[in-house]
């Protein structure tokens, strides 16, 4: 997929560092795909670490819920799982990176 990253348009962002866990069929006979997103490097995470932090995970969750309730088919999150790992991110893109917990 493509989009904006670090304040600039990027033609190819990767695969969201998504790790496929499997599928389940719920009581309504609907198939649900289970994934961890932002869990680490994948073949398409380029040179980045493939990790997500809480702030970007919450933003993505809120956006996907808004899109769903607008009637547009989208993915939805069931939960956010935080890690004991930390990464360095420039939260405000101002040259002052800080440690953030991985999610």
Mass-distribution shape:
globular
* Alpha carbon gap, first and last residue: 21 Å
Largest beta sheet: strand ordering: 1-2
Q: How many domains, in number, for the residues?
A: 1
Query: Mean of the pLDDT scores?
Result: 86
Strand content: 25-35%
Question: Number of helix segments?
Answer: 1
The assembly state of the depicted protein chains is: single chain
As a whole number of angstroms, the C-alpha radius of gyration is 15 Å
Structural class: alpha+beta
Count every beta strand, where a strand is a DSSP E run of 2 or more residues.
6
> What does the largest sheet look like?
2 strands, antiparallel
The percentage helix is 10-25%
Uncertain ranges: none
What is the string of SSEs from the N terminus onward? EEEEHEE
Ordered list of secondary-structure elements with their pairings:
Layout (H helix, E strand, L loop, with lengths): L2 E3 L2 E3 L7 E8 L5 E7 L16 H16 L16 E4 L8 E4 L2
Antiparallel strand pairs: 1-2, 3-4, 5-6
Features:
103 residues; 1 helix; 6 strands; alpha+beta; two-stranded antiparallel sheet
Q: What does this protein structure show overall?
A:
Keywords: ATP-binding, Magnesium, Metal-binding, Nucleotide-binding, Nucleotidyltransferase, Transferase. InterPro entries: SelO (IPR003846). Belongs to the SELO family. Pfam families: SelO. This protein is α+β, with helices and mostly antiparallel strands. The chain has one domain (3-101). It has one helix at 54-69, and strands at 3-5, 8-10, 18-25, 31-37, 86-89, 98-101. The strands form three sheets. It has a two-stranded antiparallel ribbon with strand order 1-2. A two-stranded antiparallel sheet has the order 3-4. Strands 5-6 form a two-stranded antiparallel ribbon. Strand 5 and strand 6 form a beta hairpin. The longest helix has 16 residues, at 54-69. The mean pLDDT is 86.
């Amino acid at each position: 997929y493509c989009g904006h990253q670090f304040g600039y348009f990027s033609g190819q962002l990767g695969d969201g560092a998504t790790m496929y866990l499997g599928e389940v069929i719920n009581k309504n006979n609907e198939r649900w795909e289970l994934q961890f997103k932002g869990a680490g490097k994948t073949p398409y995470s380029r040179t980045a670490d493939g990790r997500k932090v809480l702030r970007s995970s919450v933003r993505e969750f809120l956006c996907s819920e808004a899109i769903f309730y607008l009637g547009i088919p989208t993915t939805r999150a069931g939960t956010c799982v935080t890690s004991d790992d930390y990464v360095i991110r420039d939260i405000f893109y101002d040259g002052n990176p800080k440690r953030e917990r991985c999610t």
